[in-house]
């Protein structure tokens, strides 16, 4: 059972230590799932317009990714700082507004849009786990959804704006997928096989220096691999709604890739398997 509120300061707690998200979000395999979730988010016209108009994902993709990943880690492993991170994000999004490609006004904190951005995590986690880890049991799926709802509360999403059970979630999800999602400008860029990306400017200095001269040759391979993972780890119904082709040969290739990931990652030492914020939280939880 998740203790939803901190009884001392009446703020939402992060998901529980030792829960499904505790092992899932800090694992390096999480990095492979983020492009699919992001693409589903920006396929919503108002979300895509907000990112197109206000995000620095084109000019600073590595920094933007690092900041997003840090924020995600804090929602789960941040302890008392999780709620503070949620408040920071809401303040950040207050100024994000404009007009989408259909001439409709949007605001990043409109409940339906803000909730959709969060909601995409659950179906992507569930689908990707079939390839990258052990498929969830029904009990784990329910626990995962309950914990993801709790993360939503950390982010300031009201219970009335998110389905409160799995049985309520899937009709909501299918309605958005079938009626709202489209190939926005940002979706086109994220799945383009030849979209130029600046050389990495994050990480160890030695690695950045090594990659800089090689990046013109590596970038095309990276973008094609990103497209492959984006489409492959996206739930099939969302993929179909966006008209993204996925062949049997690609499916077999993704399954082979998944078998390698499942064999290698679990035997890595914790310092290589889990990201820094997760490692520190797991170490602190063990005392």
List keywords for this structure.
287 residues, mainly alpha, two-stranded antiparallel ribbon, 15 helices
Task: Write a structural description.
The chain has 287 residues and is mainly α. The protein has one domain. Helices cover 63% and strands 2% of the residues. The protein contains 15 helices and 2 strands. It has helices spanning 20-24, 30-42, 45-54, 61-77, 81-93, 111-119, 121-132, 138-154, 166-179, 185-191, 205-232, 236-241, 248-264, 270-273, 276-285, and strands spanning 97-99, 105-107. A two-stranded antiparallel ribbon has the order 1-2. Strand 1 (97-99) and strand 2 (105-107) form a beta hairpin. Helix 2 crosses helix 11 (205-232), helix 4 (61-77) crosses helix 5 and helix 4 packs parallel to helix 15. The two termini are 22 Å apart. Pfam families: MPAB_Lcp_cat.
Major sheet: 2 strands, antiparallel
Topology as H/E string?
Answer: HHHHHEEHHHHHHHHHH
Domain unit count = 1
Class from secondary-structure proportions: mainly alpha
Number of helices: 15
Principal-axis shape: globular
* Amino- and carboxy-terminal Cα gap: 22 Å
Number of strands: 2
Question: Approximately how much beta-strand content do the residues carry?
Answer: under 5%
Mean pLDDT: 94
Cα gyration radius (Å):
19 Å
> Order of strands in the sheet with the most strands?
1-2
Low-confidence stretches: none
**What fraction, in percent, of the residue positions are helical?**
55-70%
